[in-house]
Amino acid sequence: MTARSQWTGVATREENAHWRSVAQAVAAELAVDVLARERAGAVPRAESALLQRSGLTTLLDPAPLGGGGGHWSSAFLAVREIARVDAGIAQLLGYHYANSATIALVASAEERDDWYRRSIEGTWLWGDSVNPVDPTLSLTPDGDGFRLAGVKRFSTGSSVGDVILVNAVVDSGPDEGRFAFLVLPAGHPGVEVQDDWDFLGQRLSASNSVRFTDAPVGPEHLLGFGTDEWFQALLTPAVQLLFGNLYLGIAQGALDQARELTNARPNAWFLSGAERYRDDPFVQRLYGELVAQVAAVEALADRVNEEYDAVVARGAKVDEQARGDIAIRVAQLKVVSSETATDVAHRVFEATGSSSTASKIGLDAHWRNIRTHSLHDPIDYKKLEVGADFLLGIRQPLSLYT
């Protein structure tokens, strides 16, 4: 693989339509028992297997090596469609895309194809343990490899992943201070997945903690080191763009379910002149407002998804300006998608009435999911990022969040 980027051009309508259709079929299967599964909060093994069988997990992988040969915009669409029904599994899939894409962004040209072949042939689901706000893991040289120790919280997919992507800084030796990308197989010695994921929402995202106890890391587990290459720095905007599409899908799902509930209600409020609840002008007005807001976010998401395709296709030609421009566009989407989804998932109850708060309905799952994940990183800092760029032309320093 000689080209720095395996992704060329942007996704066609036909490509997007294909992967959207695949995702919708998966979502339909997930919808059958989503409420029961969400409440049980069990490790999503069957759901992960469904993603693998569908072909969605290899969507971004190179076609010549057996992958789907798709673009990022198709991957974001797949996440969005599944989030309409099951936001936890949508998160699992989205994080898999970001984690597995580190092969293209980080691995050397000599090793890239081998990593992809193993991942594609094994239909690997990639979990992670990379939470940057946790204390840094200890990665200590040991022979021709390392020893890894410490704990990482919020390790999405770690309990179901065939492999786990781990980030750690080398603490001594000739590589001291270097940021390492490690890939450890499930069941690796010294790696203990904690059963501690018990949160308000995103219950099926398998985002538990992972404890590393002198876990051996050989050269075969080292994907690569962080560099100052701007192409590699596109990973963070990809993750944040994933969030924007995830939030949009949650908002769309809340509207989907609310519409069904409203259309099923037989009577309007007694002071209304309407015969049925759905005929009440106040109800229609509220839906008009919410649907229009979500449509605006969708238009922005589609545009930014395509813009990301175009940037990542530039490969080694990506420079600081291009990376900064797409990061700002993604931040804009993050702001409006987060706030719109939180508002929509809350206000649909006004459009569905008190009966929609019944436990058996499960309409609250959309709000719990967006409320939980929207706290991933403070939205105020995304607003600051956008505002500082607009007013002063100042951009935030690179990090795993900006």
Automatic annotation (TrEMBL):
Catalytic activity: dibenzothiophene + 2 FMNH2 + 2 O2 = dibenzothiophene 5,5-dioxide + 2 FMN + 2 H2O + 2 H(+); dibenzothiophene + FMNH2 + O2 = dibenzothiophene 5-oxide + FMN + H2O + H(+); dibenzothiophene 5-oxide + FMNH2 + O2 = dibenzothiophene 5,5-dioxide + FMN + H2O + H(+)
Acyl-CoA oxidase/dehydrogenase middle domain sequence ranges: 137-214
Listed EC numbers: 1.14.14.21
Domain Acyl-CoA dehydrogenase C-terminal stretches: 242-377
Domain Acyl-CoA dehydrogenase/oxidase N-terminal: 13-122
Keywords tagged on the record: Flavoprotein, FMN, Monooxygenase, Nucleotide-binding, Oxidoreductase
Entry keyword Acetylation: no
Pfam families per UniProt: Acyl-CoA_dh_2, Acyl-CoA_dh_M, Acyl-CoA_dh_N
Pathway named in the protein's UniProt entry: Sulfur metabolism; dibenzothiophene degradation
Predominant localisation class: cytoplasm
Subcellular location: Cytoplasm
Family: Belongs to the DszC flavin monooxygenase family.
Name of the protein in its database record: Dibenzothiophene monooxygenase
Native source organism of the sequence: Microbacterium galbinum
